[in-house]
């Protein structure tokens, strides 16, 4: 199971707490539910989602006439999978063969955008695809260089201009280069500053327009990157950003760095956006396509 190692912290904190509760309380009663609620909220599943989950559990426990707490774990797994699944479509949307797939990355500074682009570039390269990166974060000092470090590491070229230049111009260059060279995948970084939010939205809109003018079917994905270690903050960022910027899916990074992996459940349940990828470490292989069944199995394994 590809998620298992990266979820060690969450498994240790969350599952061990549930197991302890089951062993100690033995019977499923009001006190049991109350404590379970606390554990789930502690794992960052989020109050609204916890309420839904507990209601689902109650109904199922009643239906199956379960009294013994020891029998609850499979039911909990089942309900978690249901919540995570929604209408699952974690696979990335790709252009038809022969055309360039354009993927735009948005999100606040430090969430792991550059790293995710590097990892994804590595994945596509290993699949035999040609990849080009666009250094669209011309605002943050060092962002371009950092993308170039990843470019060198995985062996793909970065289209860049000087720091401070117009990101839409960088995108124009990148799209032209991708067309000329018949590149399979173009991965585009964007600025993630939180201040001047309106300007950032305008900047993203301009980037969209430039890409669309050159490639009417692009971008194929707009992925918002969220840092799982920021918990409920990630959720509010997603709400703020996601509504306006044409986001098609989410990347949840640093799941290896948190004991509160329940944030995935909250995000999946409270936002109408699929979680496409999860980051489980800093290395270039530490990126996985999200899979709800595997994810829950990794927790309870
Ligand atoms: P950006 O500002 O959004 O481009 O963020 P970066 O890609 O520079 O990432 C910020 C930090 O988070 C870096 O130190 C990365 O190594 C680290 N990081 C990114 N993704 C992951 C992940 O999945 N797990 C862990 N542990 N660290 C990550």
From TrEMBL:
Superkingdom, natural source: Bacteria
Catalytic reactions on record: GTP + H2O = GDP + phosphate + H(+)
Enzyme class, spelled out: hydrolase
Binding site for GTP: 107-114, 189-193, 253-256
Alphabetized UniProt keyword annotations: Cell membrane, Cytoplasm, GTP-binding, Hydrolase, Membrane, Nucleotide-binding, Receptor
E.C. code: 3.6.5.4
SMART domains assigned: AAA (SM00382), SRP54 (SM00962), SRP54_N (SM00963)
Location of the SRP54-type proteins GTP-binding domain: 274-287
Subcellular location, record wording: Cell membrane; Cytoplasm
Any GO BP: SRP-dependent cotranslational protein targeting to membrane
GO terms for MF: GTP binding; GTPase activity; signal recognition particle binding
Keyword NAD in record: no
GO cellular component, one term: plasma membrane
Role summary: Involved in targeting and insertion of nascent membrane proteins into the cytoplasmic membrane. Acts as a receptor for the complex formed by the signal recognition particle (SRP) and the ribosome-nascent chain (RNC).
Assembly and binders: Part of the signal recognition particle protein translocation system, which is composed of SRP and FtsY.
Family assignment from sequence similarity: Belongs to the GTP-binding SRP family. FtsY subfamily.
PANTHER family in the cross-refs: SIGNAL RECOGNITION PARTICLE RECEPTOR SUBUNIT ALPHA
Protein name: Signal recognition particle receptor FtsY
Organism the protein comes from: Paenibacillus oryzae
Lineage: Bacteria, Bacillati, Bacillota, Bacilli, Bacillales
Underlying gene: ftsY
């Amino acid at each position: 199971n590809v998620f298992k190692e990266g979820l060690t912290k969450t498994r240790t904190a969350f599952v061990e707490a549930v197991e302890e509760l089951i062993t100690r309380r033995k019977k499923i009663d009001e006190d049991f539910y109350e404590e379970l609620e606390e554990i789930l909220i502690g794992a960052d599943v989020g109050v609204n989602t916890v309420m839904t989950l507990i209601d689902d559990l109650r109904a199922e426990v009643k239906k199956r006439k379960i009294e013994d707490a020891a029998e609850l774990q499979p039911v909990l797994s089942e309900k978690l999978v249901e919540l995570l699944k929604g209408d699952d479509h974690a696979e990335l949307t790709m252009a038809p063969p022969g055309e360039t797939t354009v993927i735009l990355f948005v999100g606040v500074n430090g969430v792991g955008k550059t790293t995710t682009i590097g990892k994804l570039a590595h994945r596509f390269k290993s699949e035999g695809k040609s990849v080009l990166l666009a250094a669209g974060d011309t605002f943050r000092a060092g962002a371009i260089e950092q993308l170039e470090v990843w470019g060198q590491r995985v062996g793909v070229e970065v289209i860049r201009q000087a720091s401070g230049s117009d990101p839409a111009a960088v995108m124009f260059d990148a799209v032209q280069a991708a067309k000329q060279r018949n590149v399979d995948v173009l991965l585009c970084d964007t600025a993630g500053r939180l201040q001047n939010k309106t300007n950032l939205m305008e900047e993203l809109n301009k980037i969209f327009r430039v890409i669309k003018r050159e490639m009417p079917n692009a971008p194929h994905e707009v992925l918002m990157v969220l840092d799982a270690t920021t918990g409920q903050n990630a959720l509010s960022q997603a709400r703020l950003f996601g509504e306006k910027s044409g986001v098609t899916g989410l990347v949840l990074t640093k799941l290896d760095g948190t004991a509160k992996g329940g944030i995935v459940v909250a995000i999946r349940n409270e936002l109408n956006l699929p979680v496409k990828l999860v980051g489980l470490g800093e290395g270039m292989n530490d990126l996985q396509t999200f899979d709800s069944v595997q994810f829950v199995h990794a927790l309870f394994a």
